[in-house]
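Worked example

This section walks through a single chain of length 153. The input is the sequence exactly as stored; nothing has been trimmed or padded.
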Amino acid sequence: MITLGSMTAVGMKKRELEFSSHPGNLSLMRNFVRGFLDNLSISERDRTLMVLGVDEACTNIIRHAYELRDELWDALRTLPPKMRAALVLRYFEDLTEAQTAHVLGCSIGTVKSQCSRGLERLRAVYGLGAQPAPDAEPDHRGGGPQTSTRRSS
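Given that input, the structure is written out below as tokens.
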């Protein structure tokens, strides 16, 4: 098992080991595992089998990530052009709502509504329930006691 102690033993810092499906991160993981295994007293046969297993797992993750990416782009293509543009600019190009509105020549409110509706449609395609938008604040309307700062006359 790879632990924080074993990571620092081979000179890796925890923040450097970010495991995701990005090929660069998987390459980092492969190199880390190979370096980790070099410091263990195991047979060359076992070391080779472990490296091959890690390589195969990383390759499968990369393949799956590309399949998911292709599926997502296919789903995005089903959206109306302006909605698709708003989503791509906000979540793929990482523009702010104001920057996206400027690029699209519309109001910030339009960007918000287009992104909200687009995410809702994509969730429906993938069979996901309603989720709050990544940067949305929690809705505090209803359900709890309400306080008022108004004085009654």
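What to look for: The helical segments are 4-9, 23-38, 44-77, 81-92, 97-104, 108-125.
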